[in-house]
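G., the chain you wanted modeled:
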Amino acid sequence: MSTIALQVVHRPAGDVENVRVFTPPLWAGPDHAYISGPGELNSVCGSCGRTLLRGLRDMHHIPGLLFVCPECRACNAIPGRPPTRRHR
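Predicted structure as tokens:
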């Protein structure tokens, strides 16, 4: 299996549109992953290395899709462009 580290980012404030932050459920055990599939690619927290996305077939940057690590609480993004700030 191949492993890709996610990019640690600051958790956005309420002024960022089109952002979805996935947080771990209270029952998340040591084997919890947000996505688990049959592929050969794992994505790990960019801070502590815990697997957050398991068994992907491919990975594409999706703006505004963030995952909070259940282990270290770091906010992770799929590498690529950061979320866009809303202009007022």
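Residues 82-88 have pLDDT under 50 and may be disordered.

Shout if anything looks off.
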